[in-house]
């Protein structure tokens, strides 16, 4: 973990060039991941990239964090996934899901093997409702409908804002554990309680799917969220 350098207010790099954090979720036809596993893998992948101490990646991450923290999720299977894995990045596994995250890139400089992957319409399901969650929890807004791909990006946003909100010692301990977290859709009561508590809230830019400024996700830590 790059201790302290992941905080936005500590960054010395401010880049006017807008960048994007690419994520790719593995979706095989015969064995797609569950929605919740994919969301949790994406959120953890973002955290691992944000706290990277790889010198080749650190400057790109800092420049990206000095601007909009935009994320784009694409999906891959078979040979597409193998090509995606060959590019510099890191893969996070969570239950049935595998998500690969890459260092941020300028909006118009996608590697060819990523640019041709599908970006819209990623839909995944949970065969069973996820159970109660404890510890770090990303809560999705109960009144905002999103595809799995969009929700993965929002979960990543919320986890990143959540990391920034934590004291250094708490963030360091969480990182040492591998950023365990849960992603759940909040009930109206859970959402209201989280927002009123001052938890960081994601307001989406509205490039896709949702109205600009929509509150899509929040982060609570520690938390105990029942399966409502």
TrEMBL record:
Keyword Glycosyltransferase included in the entry's annotation: no
Tell me if RNA-binding is a UniProt keyword of this record. no
Q: Which SUPFAM superfamilies match?
A: Peptidyl-tRNA hydrolase II
InterPro entries, alphabetized:
Pep_tRNA_hydro_II_dom_sf, PTH2
Q: What is its EC number?
A: 3.1.1.29
Q: What keywords is this UniProt entry annotated with?
A: Hydrolase
Instruction: Please report a single Pfam family linked to this protein.
Output: PTH2
Gene Ontology molecular function: peptidyl-tRNA hydrolase activity
Q: What is this protein called?
A: peptidyl-tRNA hydrolase
């Amino acid at each position: 973990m790059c201790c302290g350098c992941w905080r936005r207010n500590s960054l010395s790099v401010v880049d006017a060039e807008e960048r994007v954090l690419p994520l790719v979720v593995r979706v095989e036809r015969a064995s797609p991941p569950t929605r919740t596993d994919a969301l949790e893998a994406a959120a953890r992948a973002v955290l691992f990239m944000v706290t990277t101490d790889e010198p080749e990646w650190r400057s790109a991450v800092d420049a990206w964090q000095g601007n909009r923290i935009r994320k784009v999720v694409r999906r891959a299977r078979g040979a597409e996934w193998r090509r995606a894995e060959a590019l510099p990045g890191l893969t996070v596994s969570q239950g049935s899901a595998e998500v690969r995250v890459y260092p941020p890139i300028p909006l118009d400089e996608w590697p060819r093997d990523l640019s041709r992957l599908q970006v819209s319409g990623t839909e995944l399901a949970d065969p069973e409702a996820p159970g109660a969650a404890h510890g770090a929890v990303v809560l999705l807004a109960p009144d905002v409908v999103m595809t799995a791909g969009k929700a993965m990006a929002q979960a990543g946003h919320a986890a990143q804002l959540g990391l920034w909100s934590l004291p250094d010692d708490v963030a360091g301990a969480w990182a040492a554990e591998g950023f365990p977290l849960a992603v759940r859709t909040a009930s109206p009561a859970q959402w209201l309680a989280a927002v009123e508590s001052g938890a960081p809230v994601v307001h989406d830019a509205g490039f896709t799917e949702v109205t600009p400024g929509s509150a899509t996700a929040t982060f609570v830590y520690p938390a105990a969220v029942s399966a409502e």
